[in-house]
Each structure stands twice: as C-alpha cells, then as structure tokens.
Amino acid sequence: MKASPSSDMSVIWIDIWDSQKGSKGKTLINCSFNFGRHTATVWGTAMHPGVAQYRNCWCWGHPTHACRAQGTKCQECGRAHRVENHRSMAWCCKANPKSNPPREATAASAPCPHTFKCLNCKSEHSADDTKCPFWRHRFAKQWHSNKAAELRIGYASNSNIQRSRVGNF
C-alpha cells in the first residue's frame, strides 16, 4: 500500500507463520529483497491492530470461538459449502433438468457467470473482495463497531416488523 498519495515509498504487510518465539521473523529483519529495479528492506513492527475477517462465516470483527455459524459458508454465494465446491453445490451453477426451461450446469472451465452479494455490505462482489468497504476499513476498529451497531439496529427493526405482521393476521 502506498504510504501517501505523494510518497515514493510503499508499505507491504506480510504475515509470517512462525513459532511463538518468532525466530523465522527475526531472521528476516533487515534483509533486503529485489522487486524488479526496486529494493525492499524488511523492518520489524508491532502486530497490526486490524479487525479480523473470520474465514468460516466471512464476517468481520469476532473471534473464532464467538462465531455462531453452523458450518463453513461460501464467500461467493453465502451458502453452506466451501468455495472449492461452489460449482457442484450452489443452485446457481448446478444443472437442473426439472426447471422450466431446464438449466444446464456452468462449465467447469468457465468462471461462474452469476453476480454475488457480499455477506457484509450486500454489494455485488464476494465476501473476500478487496473492493468491499469492510475490507478497506479493516484497520478502523471504530468504523467496524459503528457498522456492527447499524446492523444490529437493522436486524432488530426487521424482526419487529415481522412480529407486527404476524400479530396482524
């Protein structure tokens, strides 16, 4: 990521799978790497304070032990299957000879032609897309807290509407 619009420096964040002592990471500090005609030097830094996106339900801001998802969700369609199995499990890609007109399966070599709705912002992209405003604000904990509060208020008002409709019948 560019340090600022007028900067000639970029910042690259990498995660290193390491032991608790951090011995692999420590060996990389002050090492240099060439990227074409550019040189990058590794500097040590504190753990980034970003908001985590849980890779089971694709929602932001809660730890693994607090996830209420029953199982893994596909980040493309939000259904209960892994993205690797999207072609064989998702209704949008599976063949359905009983539908009118009959629907053929999406070819395995072709990309999925369907538009997806993000599980977080409800825009037309997958939940792990870098265009998502949740991803762009991944280092802004207050932004995520405000969005979570908005969603809770939205869910509460929708459930109240549902209850009032049920009560009117």
Write the layout of secondary structure elements.
Blueprint (H helix, E strand, L loop, with lengths): L22 H6 L3 E4 L2 E4 L44 H4 L43 H4 L4 H28 L1
Walkthrough of the structure:
This protein is mostly helical and 169 residues long. The protein folds into 2 domains: 1-48, no CATH class; 64-168, no CATH class. 25% of the residues lie in helices and 5% in strands. It has 4 helices and 2 strands. The protein has helices spanning 23-28, 86-89, 133-136, 141-168; strands at 32-35, 38-41. It has a two-stranded antiparallel sheet with strand order 1-2. Strand 1 (32-35) and strand 2 (38-41) form a beta hairpin. The longest helix has 28 residues, at 141-168.
What count of structural domains? 2
The sequence of SSEs as H and E is HEEHHH
Mean pLDDT: 78
Uncertain stretches: none
Structural class: mainly alpha
- Biggest sheet overview: 2 strands, antiparallel
Approximately how much beta-strand content do the residues carry? under 5%
Please state the CA-atom Rg, rounded to the nearest Å: 22 Å
The order of strands across the largest sheet is 1-2
The percent of residues in helical segments reads 10-25%
Distance between the termini: 56 Å
How many E strands? 2
Compute the number of helices.
Answer: 4
Shape annotation: extended
Quick overview:
By secondary structure, this protein is mainly alpha-helical. The chain contains 4 helices and 2 strands.
